[in-house]
Amino acid sequence: MARWQGRKGRPWRRVIAQLKATNRTCWLCGHAIDVDLPVTHPLSFTADHIAPRSRGGAPTLDNVRPAHRRCNSQRGAKVDFRPPLRTSRPW
């Protein structure tokens, strides 16, 4: 059996494909994610680990949620991160 390769290889690509197919809403801000944007765009799709990899989180579908690149970067490796409250109108 092959050794787990982390965030590269077929197992990770399967997790990302399942995540894109099931949910396209950022779990941090609640807005829709456009999966067709280039990877470097701030509102592009990324997989955010609930328990960060640096703190022992596994790269499985149970530990991954969809997020915008900007939202994922703001959260960083914080475990107790609370997303900002959504307001009733844009400010």
TrEMBL record:
Residues 10-73 form the HNH nuclease domain. InterPro entries: HNH (IPR002711), HNH_nuc (IPR003615). Pfam families: HNH (PF01844). Keywords: Endonuclease, Hydrolase, Nuclease. The keyword Nucleotide-binding does not apply. CDD domains: HNHc (cd00085). The keyword Nuclease applies. Residues 50-91 are annotated as: Disordered. It comes from the Bacteria. One of its GO terms (molecular function) is zinc ion binding. This is HNH endonuclease. The lineage of its organism: Bacteria, Bacillati, Actinomycetota, Actinomycetes, Pseudonocardiales.
